[in-house]
Amino acid sequence: MKMIAAVIKHFKLDDVRKALTEIGVQGMTVIEVKGFGRQKGHMEVYRGVEYEVKFLPKIKLEVAVSDELADKVINTIAEAAKSGESGEIGDGKIFVYDLQNTIRIRTGERGEEAV
Questions:
Q1: How far apart, in Å, are the Cα atoms of 4 and each of 30, 46, 75, 84, 99?
Q2: Residue 64: beta bridge partners?
Q3: Predicted model pTM
Q4: Domains of the chain, CATH where assigned
Q5: In terms of DSSP H, where are the helices of the chain?
Q6: Ramachandran assignment for 96, one of left (phi > 0), alpha (psi -120 to 50 degrees), beta (any other)
Q7: pLDDT-based confidence at residue 11 (cuts at 50, 70, 90)
């Protein structure tokens, strides 16, 4: 099993959620986060004073999937989260972790049955 975590732009969440649902993903966790990468933040003006925003608001999406579905999920997230044809700086990152076990609390199911 794999845990796939993606950090994406806020406005791409619905596109990614819809695309993942269409390929059979049944659940996900969504977390509002802040961070920066190559974007290095941006400048904003508040009451006439310019200041630098170093941490940008993003969405972190986590999905636990079987090994067989992992590549399809990764490709789906990458395509749905991309801005335009060639993408833009700040479109996000996808991280893939090995998932040793999963337990459904309600039933006690373990492994892929719990996902």
A1: 12, 37, 11, 23, 9
A2: 3
A3: 0.85
A4: 2-114 (3.30.70.120)
A5: 13-22, 67-81
A6: beta
A7: very high
